Amino acid sequence: MAKLKPTLVPDTFWNAIVDNDVCFDDQFFYGVQTTGIFCRPSCKSRLPKRENVRIFKNAYVALDENFRPCKRCRPDGLNLPAEEWINQVAGWIDVHFTETVALETLAETFHGSPYHLQRLFTQFKGQSPLAYAQQKRLEKALQLLQASDLPIAEIAGSAGFGSTAYFITFFKNSTGLTPARYRKSFHLTGRGMPNGQAD
């Protein structure tokens, strides 16, 4: 994904993006820094924040800047390979897993259908996008339980779980231990899991 940098989008180009103006499709492409995807002005994808938009004179400049073509509008006829697209989605989840991760929002952000995203993500990652996000939250919770003395409620919030009660239930279902017992076991054995069970 492209490194974020300050950007200034001229009003004419911004208005074309807002209006999905097909008349500008041959004049420029725009990339969204937070997703690393670039589109035609006429693309019907979710409107990005103006400060995250980069303007490119053609698709090849966007590719040189490490942006990838939108799967919805396919700028210049280019198509992002499915596995690379899913890796982009997974990379976004790796950074944003503490936020609310909804399938519809992911699909809209990465310019695909929820069904298509769910199917391909499961195919390449072995689990759904939401299960992948939950796994990342669990990994974060394990890390905090091992390395800090934070209260369980604070760990739940820091790892992206909506409530402490849900966190405790999910954690126990996933590991066989409550968070408190896991922490105690880890500090006693250095492993966290009884009987040599893997984390």
Please, what is the CATH homologous superfamily of the largest domain?
A: DNA Methylphosphotriester Repair Domain
Terminal-residue CA separation: 31 Å
Roughly what percent helix?
Answer: 40-55%
How many strands appear in the DSSP assignment?
4
Mean pLDDT: 86
Biggest sheet, open or closed, and with what strands and sense? 4 strands, mixed
Q: Strand order of the main beta sheet, please?
A: 3-1-2-4
The count of domains is: 3
Number of helices: 9
Protein structure class: alpha+beta
CATH architecture of the largest domain: 3-Layer(aba) Sandwich
Tell me the overall shape: elongated
Uncertain stretches: 194-199
Strand residue percentage? 5-15%
Q: Work out the radius of gyration.
A: 21 Å
CATH fold name of the largest domain, please? DNA Methylphosphotriester Repair Domain
Helix and strand run: HEEEHEHHHHHHH
CATH class of the largest domain: Alpha Beta
Description:
Residues 87-185 form the HTH araC/xylS-type domain. Keywords: Activator, DNA-binding, Methyltransferase, Transcription, Transcription regulation, Transferase. This is AraC family transcriptional regulator of adaptative response / methylphosphotriester-DNA alkyltransferase methyltransferase. Its EC number is 2.1.1.-. Its cofactor is Zn(2+). The protein is an alpha+beta fold and 199 residues long. The protein folds into three domains: 11-76, 3-Layer(aba) Sandwich (DNA Methylphosphotriester Repair Domain); 82-130, Arc Repressor Mutant, subunit A (Orthogonal Bundle), CATH 1.10.10; 137-196, Homeodomain-like (Arc Repressor Mutant, subunit A), CATH 1.10.10.60. 49% of the residues lie in helices and 7% in strands. The chain contains nine helices and four strands. It has helices at 11-18, 59-64, 82-96, 103-109, 114-125, 129-147, 152-158, 164-175, 179-189, and strands at 29-32, 37-39, 53-56, 68-69. Strands 3-1-2-4 form a four-stranded mixed sheet. A hairpin with a 4-residue loop joins β1 and β2 (37-39). α3 (82-96) runs parallel beside α6 (129-147), α4 (103-109) crosses α5 (114-125) and α6 crosses α9. The longest helix has 19 residues, at 129-147. The chain is elongated.
